[in-house]
Specification:
Number of strands: 15
Radius of gyration: 19 Å
Helix content: 25-40%
CATH topology of the largest domain: Rossmann fold
Number of helices: 12
Strand order of the largest sheet: 9-8-7-10-11-14-12-13
Strand content: 15-25%
Shape: globular
Distance between the termini: 11 Å
CATH architecture of the largest domain: 3-Layer(aba) Sandwich
Structural class: alpha/beta
Length: 330
């Protein structure tokens, strides 16, 4: 039997799934992790002078799927995106490459979706104000996902040193989401007024201070994705309920990596993996006054579960499948 590999580009992927679809898919992926039903080694880093390459494999037996995402982070890129990714879907029964897909859009959307899922379980239900430290592309998908799981959010506060990013984010908040938005140059002002605080910067020195965080705040710490990066004062983590997506990854490259390396935080200080909370093995927020932090490093299971669902949707649709590119690999 002749088998062909399907090539799926970013434009086709973007039209296949809504943010609500990504949130539902990522939530289920976290649940599978929490139940120990995936085979997923920690991501592997290759370091270059100008950036790095991350390789992320996973097998998801419940979905009868497997795959690898390769994703770079090159902050100095000017004519190319900082982050670019490709995903290869593998048939676990034969090893055949079913699809090679753009992974850049999926990466943005599933990362936003992870923040939305975390807020569903860890933020207060009456959260009304979401503040964003960093207003780039990732802030946009974080906001979109928050509005899926916390639709009662009515006010957005944005802080970014890049004026063009801030202006674009404000336009999206107003025109796409219809929310009130306040711009401020003060990280302190944004943090102090947040019910949900989202950090998406690339800093290596904390920019959010402990005494700015009021009781009951939930924080999605998204920006730290490599050793040495951190956005939050470690004292925040010491007084918070800390949830990670994966201990091995987070302790190496997430928000907790610097405090862990300095002995300020240990595995015993981590409340749970997000998957344990989603599947009910560990409790979510218990009181209105708890400060909660979600340390998101990004898991291969998020990418491959989303990519598999998109691939199956597109190849099952007779109106779409004819427009996809295929080639004979072997």
């Amino acid at each position: 039997m002749t088998r062909q590999t399907t090539i799926i580009d970013a434009e086709t992927i973007a039209g296949a799934f809504t943010m609500a679809d990504y949130v539902a898919t990522v939530e289920e992926a976290f649940c599978l992790c929490g139940r120990g039903e995936v085979q997923m080694p920690p991501k592997l880093y290759l370091t270059f002078p100008q950036g790095d390459l991350r390789c992320m494999p996973v097998c998801i037996p419940n979905m009868n799927t497997a795959g690898v995402k390769n994703v770079n982070v090159h902050p100095g890129n000017t004519d190319l995106p900082t982050v670019m990714a490709t995903i290869t879907l593998i048939d676990p029964e034969t090893g055949f490459p079913l699809a090679i897909m753009d992974g850049t859009h999926i990466t943005r959307m599933r990362t936003g979706a992870a923040g939305g899922v975390a807020a569903k379980y860890l933020s207060r239900e009456n959260s009304r104000t979401a503040a964003f430290i960093g207003a780039g592309a990732q802030a946009q998908t974080q906001l979109a996902a928050l509005l899926v799981t916390r639709p009662a959010i009515e006010k957005v506060i944005a802080c970014d040193i890049r004026r063009e990013h801030l202006e674009h984010f404000v336009e999206i908040v107003r025109s796409t989401h219809g929310r009130e938005v306040l711009c401020t140059p003060s990280i302190q002002q944004a943090a102090e007024h947040a019910d949900i605080l989202v950090t998406t910067t690339t800093v290596r020195v904390p920019v959010v201070h402990n005494d700015w965080i009021k009781p009951g705040t939930h924080i999605n710490a998204i920006g730290a994705d490599a050793p040495g990066k951190q956005e939050l004062d470690p004292a925040i983590l010491n007084r918070a309920i800390v949830v990670v997506d994966n201990w091995e990854q987070a302790s190496h490259s997430g928000e907790i990596n610097v405090p862990v390396s300095h002995g300020l935080l240990t595995r015993d200080d981590i409340h749970a993996d997000i998957g344990q909370i989603v599947c009910g093995a560990k409790p979510a927020r218990q009181t209105e006054d708890e400060i909660t932090v979600f340390d998101s490093t990004g898991l291969a299971v998020q990418d491959i579960s989303a990519a598999t669902a998109i691939y199956r949707k597109l190849t099952a649709d007779q109106n779409t499948v004819g427009r996809l590119t295929h080639f004979k690999f072997f």
